[in-house]
# Entry
Amino acid sequence: MAIIVYAESQNGKFKKSAFEAVSYGRALANESNKNLVVISINADDPNELANYGPDKVLSVKDSSMNDYTAQVYADTISELSKKEGVSILVLSSSADSKYMSPLLAVQLGAGLASNVVSTPISISPLVVKRSCFTNKAFNHTTLKGSINIICVSNNSYGIHEKESRPEVVDVKISKNNPKIKVESLDKATGSVSIADADIVISGGRGLKGPENWHLIEDLASTLGAATACSKPVSDMGWRPHSEHVGQTGKPVASNLYIAIGVSGAIQHLAGINASKVKVVINNDPEAPFFKAADYGIVADAFDVVPKLIEKLKAFKSHQ
Amino acid sequence: MNILVCISNVPDTTSKINFVENDKIFDTNGVQFIINPNDEFGLTRAIWFQQKNQATVTVVTVGEISCEPILRKCLAIGANKAVRIDSKALDGFSVAEQLKSLCEKESFDIIICGRESIDYNGGMVPGMLAQMLEMPFVTNCISMDVNGNEVIAKREIDGGVETLSCSLPIVIGAQKGLVEESDLIIPNMRGIMQARQKPLDVVAPANSFSKSSVDKFEKPPAKGSVKLVDPDNIDELISLLHNEAKVI
Ligand SMILES: Cc1cc2nc3c(=O)[nH]c(=O)nc-3n(C[C@H](O)[C@H](O)[C@H](O)COP(=O)(O)OP(=O)(O)OC[C@H]3O[C@@H](n4cnc5c(N)ncnc54)[C@H](O)[C@@H]3O)c2cc1C
# Structure
């Protein structure tokens, strides 16, 4: 029996969340005395995984899998998992992993828990803590399958380096027959996506209009951060929907979340609460965001944000 | 064209989230239930297919009698008929099995679920259902056009959008973007009156079992109070973020 991790990559490079998932898998393998087998699909250098403790790496390189299709990836991962005698399969919580996890659950007849925020409370029976009610609460879920799947929340367990000397095996996959074809992919290049970002800078209605968004963008580029916005800002078309975060938008689980001109409505906070450190800049000391934040500045964003950008640039250049 | 929209009954987004009986059960006291927002975007898209392509729209929920008000609301919004599968929603897997048994009895061209519910946040049901029925599946779906048997759908991915093609039948996980907030239909008096006459069938559940159970809930620990920084002392904020929080 083995703990299996799928280590997600993009354009041949492993994602940060892949290293977190492997670290998590290592902890599970230690606790349950099992081998850790990591699956890599089209990553240029599967040996990079050796920094995080796998006992074995299965490397698939197949040009028919250059486009991500959930069904084909799920077919491949479930086939390899079965061969390795999977007991727990670990995935990250990226959009792609969340997309295929229910397919995998049915194919493997497995129990599934998404948004898992820590190592299991108990291994046998398998009990995990996961977030629910859009980050307003957690639940303890018992997984009752003979195989189970855990999707680890981004930034919840962290990356733990542990060198190992895994056997790296090249594996061929059986021919697949996708039901869905990828016609095109439209990806913003250069900018950081909210899901992958360590830092997210978010703007609300307090910024008055799209013409002022250079404040958010400049601050974001200074910090290498992703940009986000509140729901009304995207509803009014000031910013694209893909930036809308909160209960009905994208979830955010970054290390640092800076909210500027955002009031902190319950639906906004619900989606961003999983972020580790929250900073609010708002000219209204009564804004509810101050109750949820770690650090705050009561000030006009138009005065304070340019100063913050300038100071941060200076700080960065001295590092 | 035959469309099924799967509806989840969830607490209103402003609800206070509390638990009772030793944190084992969600406290529904004073909580108002609504159509899961992602499902409502999907329902609205389905109504457009009804208006333009004469599609028949069936809504279904797996749940107890307390879920019927939101099914009536779906009928008032414009769905043609409603089905309640009379079973507690045990977990994602068992809900998907219940829906599968309905989909095997009737044949649907498009099955729309919300990408995830705002209470359990599992995001499991749509994909499980698709896999059980061996249908193509597009989640985080922000656009879907059907031409004859061919579907062009767009999926929101981390940092971009992907355009996909497949043929009917299909299962999608809906979210905002499939229709806009301003497109949501607020039932009018006529809709509400008509909804009373429309069929709401209660069907017995299929045999199913769950693969997981929720034992207990926990609330996040209370937060310490915010540290306020003087706007004239931005250096202090940078120092706090660097030395104390260690995030920059
Ligand atoms: C079903 C439902 C789902 C929802 N889902 C979401 C969601 O997913 N995400 C979301 O964000 N919202 C959501 N909302 C909306 C939410 O209730 C709030 O309306 C919204 O978050 C408010 O956005 P805001 O903070 O940008 O705007 P406002 O509430 O208008 O706040 C603007 C803030 O800017 C401050 N401000 C003004 N001028 C300045 C200045 N010069 N400098 C600094 N600060 C300034 C003000 O003091 C105020 O606090 C949802 C609502 C419902 C009913």
The first strand of chain A starts at residue 2 and ends at 7.
